[in-house]
Amino acid sequence: MAHVGFVGVGRMGANMARRLHDKGYHVTAVQDQDSRIAKALAQELGCEAAPNTARVAELSEAIVTVVSDDAAMREIYAADTHSSLLAFAKDRLFINCATITPSVHVEIEEAIARKGGLSLEACMASSITQARQGTLYLMCAGKPGAFERAKPLLEALGSTVRYIGRAGEAAKVKALVNMVMNCNTAALAEGLGLGYAIGLDVTVLREVFSQTGAASRVLETDGEDMQARTHECYFSAAHAAKDCGIAIGLARSVGLTLPVTEATLNQYRRLVALGKGDLDKSGIAELTFIDRMP
Q1: FRET label pair with 167: which of 128, 145, 173, 204, CA 20 to 30 Å apart?
Q2: What is the pLDDT, as a whole number, of residue 1?
């Protein structure tokens, strides 16, 4: 699979393409809703900026998709158009990296199989820096044959490549990873915000948190950003809201309620409604520090 195409070359997709290019893969074509970024990346990598997704599949043996949500996923795999990926699905391998509803991964796998192709979900529990360095944590699901075919490419992208099970299963795990991460982020924002409001030194508070039961990975990645109000986006508030919604949907399907996740979802929805959905998830602190609250 020396010939690889990309659909969706925002910050994650673009850095994954760069990584594969560095590892000797021939990136054949890239496509994005924003044609400007696709053209810029194509020029950088010496490949084609495809006019539509079908052209990416036509030129490639493996196609990596990194899109934003269920609607975008269904659009690039639309069955009723000659410009979709399904137009050239036969004998291709599609590696789908989006965090979307698990049932949509199943739906897409079935659509690709009907056209004679293979599909694998490869959900990422990492961010932009890891995409560029090839140290992604990848959770994969689909048919075992698809995983074995994709494995060499995935190992060029990730330091951990785990096979979870049948289609949809990795997406379920990813939804729970992001659910817990987002809840931790919301709780950290409240803890730091409350500390600030009652007159504590937030730097000292973060140090104490790091040495006690309040320690977390989120504290390491987001605590200083919350204090300094530097919310450069690695994982957006809008995506945090979307992913909390996916987890709540899974819970409702089995009759569970998730009050902490629902409260977190409401906070992220508030942030989006205020026009701050493009901030990093650490931007939730803008709702909890008393002198920043809208």
Answers
A1: 128
A2: 59
CB 79 within 8 A of CB 110: no
Sign of the four-CA dihedral 151, 157, 158, 164: negative
Write the Ramachandran bin of 26: left for phi over 0, alpha for psi from -120 to 50, otherwise beta: beta
CA 164, CA 222: separation in Å to the nearest integer?
29
Q: Which residues contact 157 (CB under 8 A, 6 or more apart)?
A: 16, 19, 20, 131, 134, 136, 138
Distance between start and end Cα atoms, the chain: 51
Q: Give the pLDDT confidence score for residue 80 in this predicted structure.
A: 79
Query: In the predicted model, what is the mean pLDDT of residues 20-44?
Result: 97
Q: For residue 160, report the phi and psi dihedrals to the nearest 5 degrees.
A: -130, 125
Domain covering 172-287: architecture = Orthogonal Bundle (1.10)
Q: Assign a CATH topology to domain 3-166.
A: Rossmann fold (3.40.50)
- Helix locations, 229-258, DSSP H: 237-253
Residue 146 in contact with residue 152, Cβ under 8 Å?
no
| pLDDT band, very low/low/confident/very high, at 36 (cuts 50, 70, 90) | very high
Quickly count: other Cβ atoms within 10 Å of residue 74's Cβ.
17
Rounded alpha-carbon distances, angstroms, from residue 63 to 8, 58, 76: 11, 10, 12
How many CA atoms, within 13 angstroms, populate the side-chain half-sphere of residue 173? 18
What is the distance, to the nearest Å, from the Cα of residue 150 to the centroid of all Cα atoms in its chain?
A: 19
186-190: average pLDDT: 98
pLDDT at residue 242 is higher than 90: yes
Provide the residue type at 37 as one letter: I
Domain ranges of the chain: 3-166, 172-287
> Chain-centre distance of CA 208, in angstroms?
31
Q: Output the six-digit token pair for 276.
A: 């701050």
Token representation of residue 8 = 């969706």
- Whole-number percent of the chain with pLDDT over 70: 100
